[in-house]
């Protein structure tokens, strides 16, 4: 067993909507080890983004405790970086300047060195002087990844980061994610709608129920480092997760995967 990086203990969360309290997350208990890649799947509205925001310190839990390295989360911190579905780059700044936003208290030269290094990592060196509007969706998302990584967060929180990309770009970026993880050993927590993406990337997959979101199951994916999307074992995991969703909708599964 590795070192515990994140502990979520008895967390509940509700929001008040039109004067009524709505339960969003119920009895969330989860421990994540340092360097682990955990992927969260669940229906839209089951509280996945809310959970990530609580880990990021952008949203407060009602009950229970979230702690990173044994320290209770109390607001955002440089140890946690977040990547969203929309890249959220500033349109009026060059890609290079956007990436440097993740850096504080360094000289211009140091900032330039680091942004160069991370832009090279995501294969955007040639575009450092370009503006976000001049980049494709996949390139913008690469820039957003570089911006998050440059401050060297120990935990990277990814909220459907490839959800808006075309299928091939998505596959390319999924492979990049594995390389990044191998190089930096960050702890990764990713939310996705894409079951194949989950099986391709995760050490463990957290399956959530519809709202209020509860953890239905945590599936350990034992498929090794590089995964063949067409293999029988891969398909087995995909089906297992699909079945959870069909079970919830109480429809007869008439599908072939
Ligand atoms: N700030 C908020 N105020 C009120 N309700 C919210 C707020 N944020 C999220 N919700 C509600 O909480 C539920 C879960 O939202 P979210 O975490 O975004 O779900 P998911 O990411 O799984 O689709 C939704 O019903 C959403 O409308
Ligand atoms: Mg969401």
UniProtKB/TrEMBL annotation:
Asked whether the keyword DNA-binding is assigned, the reply is no
Keywords for the protein's UniProt record, in alphabetical order: ATP-binding, Nucleotide-binding, Transport
| Gene3D superfamilies the UniProt entry points to | P-loop containing nucleotide triphosphate hydrolases (3.40.50.300)
The protein here is known as ABC transporter ATP-binding protein
Q: Does the keyword Oxidoreductase apply?
A: no
Give this protein's Gene Ontology molecular function annotations.
ATP binding
Provenance organism: Blautia stercoris
Q: Domain ABC transporter, which positions?
A: 6-235
Q: Name one Pfam family in it.
A: ABC_tran
């Amino acid at each position: 067993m590795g070192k515990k990086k994140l502990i979520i203990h008895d967390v509940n969360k509700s929001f008040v909507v039109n004067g009524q309290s709505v339960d969003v997350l119920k009895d969330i208990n989860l421990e994540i080890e340092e360097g682990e890649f955990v992927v969260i799947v669940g229906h839209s509205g089951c509280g996945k983004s809310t959970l990530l925001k609580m880990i990021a310190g952008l949203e407060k839990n009602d009950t229970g405790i979230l702690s990173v390295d044994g320290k209770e989360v109390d607001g955002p911190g440089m140890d946690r970086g977040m990547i969203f579905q929309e890249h959220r780059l500033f349109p009026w700044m060059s890609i290079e300047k956007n990436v440097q936003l993740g850096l504080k208290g360094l000289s211009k030269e140091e900032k330039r060195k680091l942004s160069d290094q991370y832009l090279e990592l995501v294969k955007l060196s040639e575009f450092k002087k370009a503006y976000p509007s001049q980049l494709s969706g996949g390139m913008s998302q690469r820039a957003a990844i570089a911006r998050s990584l440059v401050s060297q967060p120990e935990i990277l929180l990814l909220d459907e980061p490839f959800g808006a990309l075309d299928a091939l770009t998505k596959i390319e970026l999924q492979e990049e994610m594995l390389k990044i993880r191998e190089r930096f050993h960050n702890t990764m927590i990713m939310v996705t709608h894409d079951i194949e993406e989950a099986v391709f990337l995760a050490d463990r997959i957290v399956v959530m129920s519809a709202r209020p979101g509860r953890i239905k199951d945590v599936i350990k994916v034992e498929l090794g480092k590089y995964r063949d999307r067409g293999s029988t074992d891969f398909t087995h995991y995909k089906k297992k997760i699909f079945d959870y969703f069909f079970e919830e909708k109480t429809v007869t599964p008439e599908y072939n995967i």
